[in-house]
Amino acid sequence: xxxxxxxxxxxxxxxxxxxxxxxxxxxxxxxxxxxxxxxxxxxxxxxxxxxxxxxxxxxxxxxxxxxxxxxxxxxx
Length: 76
Description:
Layout: H1 20-37, H2 47-75
Helix pairs in contact: 1-2
């Protein structure tokens, strides 16, 4: 919410006051939600799809951690 002192708009990845890692995390979460909502589920969820989703989630977590580590290193 803009205008509130010390407050971040925690759900808006366009909020430039948030660190890059947090904006990236929010964008990836939105992409995951969009993909899940638009996935064709008529075939059901196969093990292959579940494994793919897990690999993507792990890669997203890894990317966010790398960005977070980079930003923390810059501030030291």
